[in-house]
Amino acid sequence: MKFFVDTADIKEIESLLDTGMVDGVTTNPSLIAQTGRDFIQTIKEITKIVTEGPVSAEVTALDFDNMKRQGEILAGIADNIAIKVPLTVDGLRACKYFADQGTMVNVTLCFSAAQALLAAKAGAAFISPFVGRLDDIGQDGLGLIEEICLIYAQYDFPTEVLVASVRSPLHITEAAKLGADVATLPPKVIRQLYNHPLTDKGLDAFMADWAKTGQSF
Ligand code: G3P
User: Fold this and answer.
1) Which of 20, 72, 78, 170 fits as disulfide partner to 47, beta carbons 3.0 to 4.6 Å?
2) Using a 6 Å CB cutoff, which residues line ligand 1?
3) In angstroms, rounded to a whole number, what is the distance separating the alpha carbons of residues 68 and 105?
């Protein structure tokens, strides 16, 4: 399973890149707004530090013609840009337009298997089902992941299932059991993945016992 970090905060991206756990970045207009910084400049800076994995940058237009115009600007920033488009009819049209040119597209704001099927047919590189927002309204976010993985497997679609709107490590492990290809995690959740109180307690005990030996190497 690949891990992308779901943030536009440069310092967070830099610190998590150093851990070796991050394979890419996803942003969205809300995450950009939280930085208080210029969108294009921020994406340029992210692609300077994340040179290998996909960096998702979302169009803010709602119509095909302006999605096409904005997508071309974003794709021109770096080769590892994945243009993010919403799961609307114009977004799907833009997805097909860019996918036909060989540009990575991440189709976002997916909340149903039917939507995910359309995104795969449009040639999306990634589909982003928002599990947390479905859970937030009492629906089964992971159930959607299961449905999408099942459908995609029937047709051998190359579109990667990118689990988004992640709220906890449980979303990650359960989605991994279902075979999801990627998860995009808020920095906080990435840190929750490796932190465990029993690990800390055990390490403290090891260090205390080691100190008693008076040895070092
Ligand atoms: O960035 C896409 C998605 O992960 C955002 O989800 O629910 O945390 O705003 P959310």
Assistant:
1) 78
2) 6, 26, 28, 130, 132-133, 164-165, 184
3) 12
The span from the CA of 173 to the CA of 38, in Å, is 35
> Residue range 39-43: average pLDDT?
98
Q: Which of 68, 84, 177, 188 is catalytic?
A: 84
Classified by CATH at the fold level, domain 2-210 comes out as TIM Barrel (3.20.20)
Nearest CA owner, ligand 1 atom 6: 165
Nearest-angstrom CA–CA distance, 175 and 184: 11
Name the closest-CA residue to atom 10, ligand 1. 165
Short-list 20, 36, 29, 88, CA closest to 59: 29
The model's pTM is: 0.95
2 is catalytic: no
Distance (Å, rounded) from C-alpha 67 to C-alpha 105?
12
Cβ atoms of 10 and 46 within 8 Å: the answer is yes
Q: What is the pLDDT of residues 140-158, one digit of tens each?
A: 999 999 999 999 999 989 9
